[in-house]
Amino acid sequence: MVPKQGVTCAMKAIFLMTAAAFALASCGPTVPESGVGFEDYQTYAQRQQAAEQAGAAPLPGIRPGQTVVQAPVSDIASNTPESTAAVRAAAANSGITPIEASPGNTAPQVVTNAAGISNENSFEAVSAERDIGADAQLIAQNRAQYQLITPTDLPPRPSGSGPNVVEYALRTTNPVGSPLYDRRGRDDGNRISAACGAYTSSDQAQAAFLAAGGPQKDRKGLDPDGDGFACAWDPAPFRAARGG
To answer: How far apart are CA 215 and CA 205, in angstroms?
Structure first.
């Protein structure tokens, strides 16, 4: 067990060592706090002037007599995020400045029905324009103006217009190639081909055939088989149109 006297001596030694350390610290030079805000302005100006005369770098701060220039309010406002976004949008929009979302801006007008677009499919729009009674009146007016045109017979052909091949087709009943007239001795194919080649169509050949006396005479030699039809003219389409 440590004697009480020894403990007391040790505590005294520790106390003395601590006091000596504080004394040494208080004896050391203090680092002055310099600069604007830590000393009066006159002392700071003297130190600044002495540093300039000695060729040293000037101390930070504002020189005496120096005027502080305040940035324009427009420049400050132009650096806001909204202004920067507007400038970027204008650069990407062919130079057109976009409309800013300001409460003072007039709200855009909503177009409910552009010109030329029908709103007949909208029940509300149609109901607002007319009612069932107006529709019934309109239907009655249309019925009063309705006219039923019935087909009539064709007017007679004027005299001197030539034979009618359609009338001849409907008057006859024999098919193509069925001989009705005697054509013996008229089977010269070269002569028949030359005669039919003078017409641009079989209808013209048939009309000329009828104008020259028809199948009874066949003066131009256009009906070698005697069926009454010149140059392979076929009456079937005209008969089919009549329904027979």
So the answer is: 12
Give the number of other CB atoms < 10 A from CB of residue 159.
5
Contacts of 218 (CB under 8 A, 6+ apart): 181, 183, 186, 209, 212, 230
d(CA 115, CA 129): 16
Task: Kindly report the three-state secondary structure assignment for every residue of 28-84.
Answer: CCCCCCCCECCECHHHHHHHHHHHHHCCCCCCCCCCCCCCCCCCCHHHHHHCCHHHH
**DSSP code, position 230:** G
Helix (H, G, I), strand (E, B) or coil at 207: helix
Among residues 205, 207, 146, 214, which one has the least CA distance to residue 180? 214
* Amino acid found at 7: V
Enumerate helices (H) and strands (E) in the chain, giving the number of each: 10, 0
Pick the more confident residue, 34 or 165.
165
Amino acid at the residue 10: A
Q: Compute the C-alpha angle 193/197/202, nearest 5°.
A: 100
How far is residue 161's CA from residue 157's CA, in Å, rounded to a whole number?
7
Instruction: Give the residue-averaged pLDDT of 202-221.
Output: 90
Which tens digit of pLDDT belongs to each residue from 76-123?
445 566 667 666 766 665 556 566 667 677 777 766 655 566 677 777
C-alpha to C-alpha distance for 181 and 175, rounded to whole angstroms:
13
